[in-house]
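Technical note accompanying the year-one report. For the benefit of new consortium partners, we illustrate the data format agreed upon in the data management plan: each record pairs a sequence with a structure-token string. No post-processing was applied to the example shown here.
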Amino acid sequence: MTREEKFMQEAIKLSLNGVVNNEGGPFGCVVVKGDEIVGRGNNKVTSSNDPTAHAEVTAIRDACKNLNSFQLTDCEIYTSCEPCPMCLGAIYWARPKVVYFANNRKDAADIGFDDSMIYDEMKAEMHERKIPIIPLGRNDALKVFEEWANKPDKTEY
């Protein structure tokens, strides 16, 4: 078994643990730095009443806490399923060096986890989306952006 397969087996094990413990959907994830697992997560959407508690997000949160960093530089992510749009966004913000996945989005759709509507919504113009996305309060919000832009001691990311 390769190093990568070993870490993927850990992600798959977490996905099964989540199912057995009724924590959420069948998804698991580990974050690896070097040869060490620095973050673990499984889907906890239904057990935590948190729609963002997907396996990748919980593993990223755990890894960042353990590494005391908001980025996963030089880390690898192993996830039991191709990341959904939300998790993909979180992964890009975390900036790992590689992502490995087991099941693909069609496999997920086949068991009731179909993200195709979200992928379609992301491509749609705002006025065509199923949930109205309406601009409001930009002038006041821009002032805060100016504060940020001029803040000399900000932490860039």
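Partners are asked to follow this layout when depositing records. The chain is about 45% helix and 15% strand.
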